[in-house]
Write a structure and sequence with these properties.
single chain, mainly beta, three-stranded antiparallel beta sheet, 1 helix, 6 strands, 4% helix, globular, binds zinc ion
Length: 104
């Protein structure tokens, strides 16, 4: 499984992966997150606290609590990379919510 937002990897193409449903694409904008190099900032944002809801292309890093964002909607089994804390994460569906769990 390709890591969807790993800046070190070329983005995988859904067409080649033979997915049943096309992924929804998201245009990521600068969020002001400044703990990673500028070109990667759009892939992260700070959690807004209680009341902050995550978009279908976002999961929260359980290690550093930063929100990791993907350019497409996330699904169970997707892998994301949290650059601020160097965690490799896998997306898991828990109680109808997407959560990210560390991959060791
Ligand atoms: Zn993290």
């Amino acid at each position: 499984m390709a890591t969807v937002n790993d800046p070190l990897q070329k983005e995988s193409t859904d067409e080649q992966a033979g997915q049943e449903k096309p992924h929804q694409r998201y245009v990521l904008e600068e969020t002001g997150f400044n703990e990673v190099p500028k070109k990667y900032r759009k892939f992260y944002r700070r959690f807004g606290g209680e009341g902050d809801s995550l978009a279908p292309n976002e999961v929260q890093c359980p290690v550093c609590m930063v929100i990791v964002r993907s350019s497409r909607n996330l699904r169970q089994g997707d892998r994301v990379y949290c650059m601020p804390c160097f965690s490799r994460l896998v997306v898991v569906m828990v109680n109808d919510r997407l959560e990210a769990h560390p991959v060791y």
